[in-house]
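Researcher: Here's the sequence for the chain we discussed earlier.
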Amino acid sequence: MVNQAFTVDLNKPLVFQVGHLGEAYEEWVHQPIVSKETPRFFASDIMEFFTRTAWWAIPLIWLPVVCWFVCTSAKIGLSPYELAATVVGGLFIWTLLEYSLHRFLFHIKTKGYWANTLHYLIHGCHHKHPMDGLRLVFPPAATLILLVPFWNLIKYLAPASYAPAIFGGGLLGYVMYDCTHYYLHHGKPLKGVSHDLKRYHMNHHFRIQNKGFGITSTFWDWVFGTLPPQSYKKS
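Model: Thanks. This is the structure I predict for it:
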């Protein structure tokens, strides 16, 4: 049921409130609160801990895993050329996954209580609090859970010698994505590619949320016709 009169109390844990917004959730979540303060999600300190991650934890935890998978393919017998090409292939696959997840999952429209609640946890919180530095990267525990089916899928589809390097390249792409995403929100590039990407991503947050789904690249937005209009890109 839709409850248009419900008001979220920002001074209380948020996660189990947002579901009550019903159809009003979509409008509410895209009215950002620009503050570097980290809002509380849960009353439980343990659950709250697992929603907060410093950006540097991502490369610290996952780059050694990337190296292990790439070295596994090298030990099996891939040549340096084959290894490099396979890792780049994994990176390329990640860019499409990055775009697809952002466009089709993170920006799915919801209105039911549990759908709103889950969406807020996955991505809605980031649009509501875009400068929250402890919820800009994906929590490692959640990443680990998601990596298991992805690894099994790659093992099933790819030859045994190539699968670890493909997976390692994809995981490297994820690390680059999370670090880039954090930098686009909190860094201050003055010119060049990073400046253009920051402006591109800030337009997605504050002006035209249904366009510009790429984070590390605009390539797939170009391919699938979701580039923002020229007026937005130049402003």
